[in-house]
Design goal:
CATH architecture of the largest domain: 2-Layer Sandwich
Radius of gyration: 33 Å
Distance between the termini: 56 Å
Strand content: 15-25%
Strand order of the largest sheet: 2-1-3-4-5
Structural class: alpha/beta
Number of strands: 12
CATH class of the largest domain: Alpha Beta
Oligomer: single chain
Number of domains: 3
Length: 371
């Protein structure tokens, strides 16, 4: 039940207010405020304070202080005044008071005004509690990022290091064992890439991500990335690269660009037949770069296309092809962070084409500086 504090000097008004409001709320009444500061106002919890002009004269500084202490939660104060009493309107009234009600007071009007103020306080409390829960969840995510970065990477690094050590002793390792070691290395690379993607995704949700644009010569960057993707997977597909436009470097965030292209190329290779060709077209324009990744794979049904960028969502026709459902969600997040756009077209059993447009960040900074 809501708690109301009444600070009214006129005894009969105080009695009538308390008598009426006690039917609906818990009420605390201070008998006098002229000589002493009421302890209940400074220390005790309440949801609404009702006071008159004389109480406001003595307590306006305490009112402002108490309201500031409650922030960001709204603590309403209702002032009872007479219509001719305009002197109160000139001394920081609206820094202390949230609502006025004029004497003589109608009970129905009083109840409505009280309920409206209490409703605003409830909404404010709910919002504050939601924000506190969100902050707590963000702190948990931050701790998870810290733990995962160390605890997950350490065993992966150890496995990778030991397999590399064994691979250097090829004369003592049979061909079959060497193949197993390569598979281990590929699995470690896939796990490391997935871990990086998930950690960046969580970190971005919690703290945001500062863009770090660097000059990237796109064609060699993409060709090298394709080799890395193919080496870390078991999908031996052909990727055909075409390049249009100037060959001067583009300024992009390398981490985000790598996430975008790695996930799109991995999906194109994963969901295509072994004899098909994946096309990567790069178009360097004056203010942006367009990447088009086209495959001849299983395609995406119209029903699945609506949820394609949702985290952990996987299309119904993926069959036994392994995956987490995070790749395209990560791509969409990375594209948005880079200030770009992504679109796609797809037909079941015919293939899928993704088109990603990313602004040249150097060009954008120049434009901003000229504004």
């Amino acid at each position: 039940m809501a708690q109301i504090l009444i600070l009214v000097e006129q005894s009969e008004n105080r009695r009538l207010l308390a008598e009426y409001l006690k039917q609906y709320y818990e009420v605390t009444v201070e008998n006098t405020v002229a000589q002493t500061k009421p302890v209940s106002f400074t220390d005790d919890p309440f949801d609404l304070c009702i006071l008159d002009g004389r109480a406001l004269t003595h307590l306006w500084e305490e009112i402002q202080s108490r309201k500031q202490q409650e922030q960001p939660v709204f603590l309403p104060v209702l002032l009872i005044t007479s219509r001719p009493d305009v002197k109160l309107m000139t001394r920081n009234l609206w820094e202390s008071i949230d609502e006025l009600i004029a004497r003589p007071i109608e009970k129905a009007e009083l109840r409505v005004r009280v309920e409206m103020l209490l409703r605003s306080r409830r909404f404010s409390l709910q919002l504050s509690e939601s924000l506190a829960r969100e902050r707590e969840q963000n702190e948990l995510k931050s701790r998870f990022i810290s733990v995962a970065s160390h605890e997950f990477r350490s065993p992966l690094n150890m496995i990778s290091g030991l397999t590399q050590l064994l691979e250097t002793k090829q004369d003592a390792v049979s061909e079959k064992k060497a193949d197993f070691l390569q598979r281990i290395q590929k699995a470690v690379k896939r796990m490391t890439t997935l871990l990086d993607d998930v950690l960046v995704m969580i970190k971005t949700e919690v703290n945001g991500l500062d863009l770090a644009p660097v000059a990237i010569t796109l064609e060699p960057f993409c060709r090298k990335l394709i080799e890395e993707v193919k080496l870390s997977s078991s999908y031996a597909r052909t990727v055909h690269v075409t390049y249009e436009g100037e060959h001067d470097p583009a300024y992009c965030d390398e981490v985000l660009l790598r996430q975008i292209l790695t996930n799109l190329l991995s999906n194109a290779l994963k969901y295509s037949s072994s004899d098909s060709v994946v096309q990567l077209q790069i178009q360097r324009r004056s203010a942006d770069v367009v990447f088009q990744i086209q495959d001849q794979g299983i395609g995406i049904s119209p029903e699945d296309q609506k949820s394609l960028f949702d985290a952990f969502y996987r299309a119904a026709n993926v069959g036994e092809v392994s995956g987490t459902g995070l790749g395209l969600a990560i791509v969409k997040q990375a594209v948005d962070l880079h200030g770009g756009t992504i679109s796609f077209s797809s037909e079941v059993n015919a293939g899928t084409t993704f088109v990603v447009t990313l602004p040249d960040l150097a060009h954008r900074e120049v434009n901003s500086a000229n504004v």
